Amino acid sequence: MNTDKPIYVTQPFLPPLEELTPYLEKIWDNKILTNGGPFHQQLEQALCEYLGVEHIALFTNGTLALVTALQALRITGEVITTPYSFVATAHSLLWNGIKPVFVDIDPDTLNLDPAKIEAAITPQTTAIMPVHVYGHPCDVEAIQKIADNYNLRVIYDAAHAFGVQDKNGSILNHGDMSVLSFHATKVFNTFEGGAIICPDAKTKQRIDHLKNFGFVDEVTVVAPGINGKMSELNAAIGLLQLKHIDHALARRKEIDAIYREALSTVKGIRCVQDAGEAVANYAYFPIMVETGYPLTRDALFQKLREHNIYARRYFYPLISEFSMYRALPSANPKNLPIATEAAYQVICLPIYPTLTLEEQQRIINLVTEV
Ligand SMILES: *Cc1c(COP(=O)(O)O)cnc(C)c1O
After folding, report:
1. Within this chain, do residues 74 and 210 fall inside the same structural domain, yes or no?
2. Is residue 104 located within the same domain as residue 154?
3. Is the CB–ligand 1 distance for residue 111 below 6 Å?
4. Which of 160, 171, 89, 182 is nearest to 351 (CA)?
5. Domain count, the chain
6. Is 0.85 surpassed by the pTM of this model?
7. Distance CA 184, CA 260 (A)
């Protein structure tokens, strides 16, 4: 029996509890619990400023935000997306009656490979849904060029990309919409939560109607909307998290640097490339276990578990392997060789602001001492 303290792939960042009290008192005083209350409004404004975006609509979670983004843009038919993501990416398409078309990824960035998109476009294709995997920016310019040529919409699943910037500013300003997740495991969390970033006030208004059953006023319903509203409690937690986010990101950056330094020379271990010129958020620390390493990926994963280190194989299995997708022609592993290989090599090591140096050293020793 290993008695070392368990270390999980992530640990949600929680501000000191007493800092929450004033927020709770306000909610108890004014008795506004949801439906665009004061904290909801404040968080939307604060996030626009922090992220450098124009319009944001808060949601109950990222998945409902994805589903609603597709509704807001009236996407139908086929959508090109990546198999190398969390299953909610493709599920949001099925919930809209849309057929996902899987396209392979780039071996270095693990993002949707723009060079392979065109071959997958058919007369039914209406949009592209790429993912900024691990917070690494997609090739947004190449993707937009294809979208413009074929008159396609682009909806980014930006669940990993909170705070990420490229040379033009926030990565969330690309495409027609970007969707964030504020789930407990993400870089910035509201326990459960999510958001849609969109470029204009009219679109935001449509999204706000859709997340509130389609109501535009007390007696008028303009669309078969859903209930996707963020509550005041979740919004308050978001405001509180925002006060600590810069510190949390700085700690993640230090942990990333220590892993890179310690692991980049280990034979058979490849650290997935850093975000380069981009302002990164260090949301994950993926390593690829390649043939030169003495253990298989699963053997290393198991060894870590035996030492109470709960790393995760994000993203294994591929979305295209799940039963509701497997029969699609584009889900054939022969169509997705790079993603298939990556899914069998990847391990995401623990990274979160409160991970101590000693804990990180325990992890590094287990990977290097074989
Ligand atoms: C977390 C995540 C989602 C879903 O977000 P929830 O807030 O958990 O619903 C969607 N896509 C990706 C890539 C994610 O990592």
Report:
1. yes
2. yes
3. no
4. 160
5. 2
6. yes
7. 25
- Tell me which of 89, 91, 181 to substitute to probe ligand 1's pocket, judged by most ligand atoms within 8 Å of the beta carbon: 181
- The neighbour count for residue 224, using CB atoms within 10 Å, is 9
Alpha helices in 172-315 (DSSP H): 201-210, 232-263, 297-306
Taking the centre of ligand 1 as the mean of its atom positions, its distance from the CA of residue 64, in whole angstroms, is: 10
Chain centroid to CA 89: how far?
A: 9
Q: What are the angstrom distances between the C-alpha of 85 and each of 111, 142, 173, 231, 348? A: 9, 20, 21, 27, 13
pLDDT digits (tens, 9 = 90+) for 48-70: 999 999 999 999 999 999 999 99
Considering the domain boundaries, does residue 5 fall inside one? no
Burial grade of 45 (CB within 10 A; 0-12, 13-18, 19 or more)? exposed
Which pLDDT does position 275 carry in this prediction?
Answer: 77
Indicate if 23 and 122 belong to the same structural domain. yes
- Regarding whether 223 and 282 lie in a shared domain, the answer is no
pLDDT at 1 > cutoff 70? no
| CATH at residue 272 | 3.90.1150.10
pLDDT band for 79, please (50, 70, 90 cuts): very high
> Which atom belonging to ligand 1 lies closest to the Cα atom of 181?
7
Q: Quote the ligand 1 centre to 91 CA distance (angstroms).
A: 11
Any idea what the CATH number is for the domain that residue 224 is in?
3.40.640.10
Domain limits at 25? 17-240
* Within-domain flag for 9: no
240, 275, 308 - which closes a domain: 240
